Each structure stands twice: as structure tokens, then as C-alpha cells.
């Protein structure tokens, strides 16, 4: 997803169990070698880094709370579809999701850009 409008549209589309199951099945085949790899791949396919910068887990500092969105449950269920991550607990998956969100500002050259700004 590119922006908040697309995220809101996705959340609206997740009203029926049929649509939820469709999304879980789609994301569940992305795969990964372990829980972390699977979560990172799924999160990267669902959210752009630009959008991820406007999200956090609890919705503080004017950001949107991922913990309150329906896509959170879909990501957790999609991770568990992977045989290598099927035993992951909800808190394990949520921990990796939180870390992925925390690092959104560092991806795509964000860390290097901040260091250059600091030097100047």
C-alpha cells in the first residue's frame, strides 16, 4: 500500500470472512525461513516504507496504531500458514512486527540521510 487512503480502503474491504481468508491465503504463500523472515517479507509486501513511517504499534505521536487494524490479525494468521513459522505465538509475531515498524525510517537510505544532515 502506498498511502493512508489505500490503508483505509483495505481496512474497509476486510468486512467479510471471505475477503479475510483471501488475503490470508495470498500473504501466506510469501514464505520465509523463520518467523522473523516471514513477518518481514509479509510486512514489506503489505506496506511501503513511506506508509510504515506513519504507523506504529500503539498510535502515539499522531501515527496510526497497527495493533488496532484488522490487517494485524491477517498478518499473524498468514505467518502461521508458513510451515516454518506455524508454531509462532501471537506475541512472537507482534514483536517482529513492532521491530519492522521501528526500523522503517532507516530503510531506503533513511539512516544515511539523517547522518548527512547531522554532519551539515
From TrEMBL:
InterPro entries tied to this protein: DUF4806
Domain of life: Eukaryota
All residue ranges annotated as the DUF4806 domain in the record: 7-72
Pfam families listed in its UniProt record: DUF4806
Protein name as catalogued: DUF4806 domain-containing protein
Species name: Coilia grayii
Amino acid at each position: 500500500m502506498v498511502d493512508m487512503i489505500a490503508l483505509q480502503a483495505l481496512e474497509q474491504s476486510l468486512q467479510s470472512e471471505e475477503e479475510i481468508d483471501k488475503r490470508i491465503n495470498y500473504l501466506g504463500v510469501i514464505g520465509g525461513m523463520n518467523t522473523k523472515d516471514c513477518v518481514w517479507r509479509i510486512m514489506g509486501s503489505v506496506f511501503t516504507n513511506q506508509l510504515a513511517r506513519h504507523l506504529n504499534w500503539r498510535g502515539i505521536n499522531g501515527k496510526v496504531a497497527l495493533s488496532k487494524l484488522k490487517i494485524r490479525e491477517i498478518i499473524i494468521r498468514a505467518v502461521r500458514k508458513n510451515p516454518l513459522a506455524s508454531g509462532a505465538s501471537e506475541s512472537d509475531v507482534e514483536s517482529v512486527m513492532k521491530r519492522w515498524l521501528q526500523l522503517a525510517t532507516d530503510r531506503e537510505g533513511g539512516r544515511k540521510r539523517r547522518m548527512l544532515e547531522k554532519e551539515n
